[in-house]
Amino acid sequence: MDPLTVTTARPHAPETDHLDLLESHAAFVIREVAAECERPVLLFSGGKDSAVLLHIAVKAFAPQRLPFPVLHVDTGQNFPEVLAFRDRTVAMLGARLVVASVPEAIARGRVPDPGPLGSRNRLQTTALLDAIAEHGFDAAFGGARRDEDKARAKERVLSFRDAFGQWDPRRQRPELWNLYQGRVNAGEHLRAFPLSDWTELDVWRYIAREGVALPSIYFAHEREVVRRDGMWLAVNEFVAPLDHERPQWRTVRYRTVGDATCTGAVESAAVTVDEVVREVATATISERGATRADDRFSETAMEDRKREGYF
């Protein structure tokens, strides 16, 4: 036998799959930003993308604890299941939770009260920017993905915001060959999107592989809903049926989590992660395009809000 054959033989190594590569890059971005910035924070809505982002961040710094706090922008009109999940998750990790409250911003006169029929979703921008300024955060990790919306497709992995928290897509730094420049100028901050290159299907397959916990509303359940703006809106303390609407009980689940006044459900029988994966694999509309009324306000709704300082 050729001696070279013996000396160079190696045990078969497991192949690195697509999810491994996505996770590795996300962890790299998180570590790089944490090393470059003095006061990063992780935006945590309790939704699937932020749950995956938090999971990867915890793995990136294990066995140490998460070295930065998590920030939730609370509209005061969130689903109770999501708020309960948020509190359980933060307590389990022993992480510090910072809540930016839209109701408090309204009470202080920072933003106008939209009234009982208005959505507070857009008001989150002011609450977020106030929290960033109050705590001196110079970087905020977010779970946004490019496949969600055409405005988010313009976003860099590291998105720099000016002294007013605003985003200008024409002034973003190049990121050729995944090389990042994370230096933040005085008075500015950056948003980091480690899941930029993920798809909704990637997220769900990762949730299945890693056993990431999620709020129960992501899975099929019976709920009283009304049909409004082409979506099933849950009837609750924030959403009352209009005169022409007939409440119905439907088996639904949520593809995305947000303010209860503008986040719709989809009819579904998927009660397990594997069933959701199969359902998402055949979807032809993004989760935000299908279930978020605030993104249908205009063709440039998301980009307009991002320029103002939105997530």
Could you explain how this protein is built, in words?
With 311 residues, the protein is α/β, with parallel strands linked by helices. The protein folds into two domains: 18-201 and 302-308, HUPs (Rossmann fold, 3-Layer(aba) Sandwich); 212-296, no CATH class. It has helices at residues 3-8, 18-36, 48-61, 80-93, 102-107, 124-135, 150-153, 200-210, 273-281, 287-291, 301-308, and strands at residues 40-43, 70-74, 97-101, 139-141, 158-161, 189-192, 221-228, 231-234, 248-253, 266-267. It has a six-stranded mixed sheet, with helices on both faces. A four-stranded antiparallel sheet has the order 8-7-9-10, with no helix packed on it. β2, α4 (80-93) and β3 (97-101) form a beta-alpha-beta unit. It is globular, with a radius of gyration of 21 Å. 41% of the residues are buried.
Detail the topology: elements first, then pairings.
Blueprint: H1 3-8, H2 18-36, E1 40-43, H3 48-61, E2 70-74, H4 80-93, E3 97-101, H5 102-107, H6 124-135, E4 139-141, H7 150-153, E5 158-161, E6 189-192, H8 200-210, E7 221-228, E8 231-234, E9 248-253, E10 266-267, H9 273-281, H10 287-291, H11 301-308
Parallel strand pairs: 1-2, 1-4, 2-3, 4-6
Antiparallel strand pairs: 5-6, 7-8, 7-9, 9-10
One letter per element, helices H and strands E, the order comes to: HHEHEHEHHEHEEHEEEEHHH
CATH superfamily of the largest domain: HUPs
Sheet with the most strands: spatial strand order: 3-2-1-4-6-5
Q: Which CATH-level-2 architecture of the largest domain? A: 3-Layer(aba) Sandwich
- The CATH class assignment of the largest domain is Alpha Beta
**First-to-last CA distance:** 62 Å
CATH topology of the largest domain: Rossmann fold
Radius of gyration: 21 Å
* Low-confidence residue ranges: 1-13
Mean pLDDT: 85
